[in-house]
Design brief:
single chain, alpha+beta, L-fuculose-1-phosphate Aldolase, seven-stranded antiparallel beta sheet, 8 helices
């Protein structure tokens, strides 16, 4: 069982990984992790640079957004994280970034198409983009509404097979079974977004890769009879 101290340490280190992989600048982005048994979420404080961030600064909250520990205000995106934890029961970590390529697709309000097998190794099709928020949603509880937009989009997708989304005109969210895996998926999302951009720049008329090839590559890595890698690679 992971202690709360260890959860804070892991979330702190996961946030630093965003900076290491150049997915964030200055104070952009955030990582959270959850202790499902205790119902406690650890998340980056709002507006703190990665150079200044320490594990002691990580804020603890419950699923009702009540601060349990910490002197700093939690991330402004906290309510979006909480909506994902409440509705995606198998996840243990959430990441939000404004990484350049993924965010470019978000600003273009376009899903990222699956154009090759590298993409298919990670998701069995396009990476979805949410609808743009209505004025009424923006005026309400904006961060919760962002989570609701993601949940609405995922009525058509399996969050376990597609652990990433781009929010129209905003940025990227990813998740995983742990904070570390959620960061891994953010790195992969940016890589896939860049490749799709470059591919379309070379050939604007390129169609999505055929379904049989998508299924083969996704299933050999994630399917019931997966044979890619070692037993530890998903941990």
């Amino acid at each position: 069982m992971v202690s709360i101290k260890e959860l804070k340490e892991r979330v702190w280190k996961a946030n630093l990984e965003l900076d290491k992989h150049q997915l964030v600048v200055y104070t952009f982005g955030n990582v959270s992790g959850i202790d499902r048994e205790k119902g406690i979420v650890a998340i980056k404080p709002s507006g703190v640079s990665y150079e200044e961030l320490t594990s002691d600064m990580i804020v603890l909250i419950d699923l009702d957004n009540k601060i349990l520990e910490g002197d700093l205000r939690p991330s402004s995106d906290t309510k979006t994280h909480l909506e994902l934890y409440k509705h995606f029961p198998e996840i243990g970590g959430v990441v939000h970034t404004h990484s350049p390529y993924a965010t470019s697709w978000a600003q273009a309000r376009k899903p990222i198409p699956c154009l090759g097998t590298t993409h298919a190794d990670y998701t069995p099709g396009e990476i979805p983009c949410t609808d743009i928020m209505s004025d009424e949603q923006i005026k309400r509880d904006y961060e919760k509404e962002t989570g609701d937009q993601i949940l609405e989009t995922f009525k058509k997708y399996d969050y376990r097979h597609t652990p990433m989304v781009i929010v129209a005109s905003h940025g990227a969210f990813t998740w995983g079974v742990s904070p570390e895996q959620a960061v891994y998926h953010s790195v992969i999302l940016e890589y896939l977004a860049k490749m799709a951009f470059n591919t379309i720049a070379i050939n604007p008329d390129i169609p999505a890769v055929k379904e049989t090839l998508i299924n083969k590559h996704f299933q050999r890595k994630h399917g019931e009879n997966a044979y890619y890698g070692q037993d530890t690679y998903k941990k």
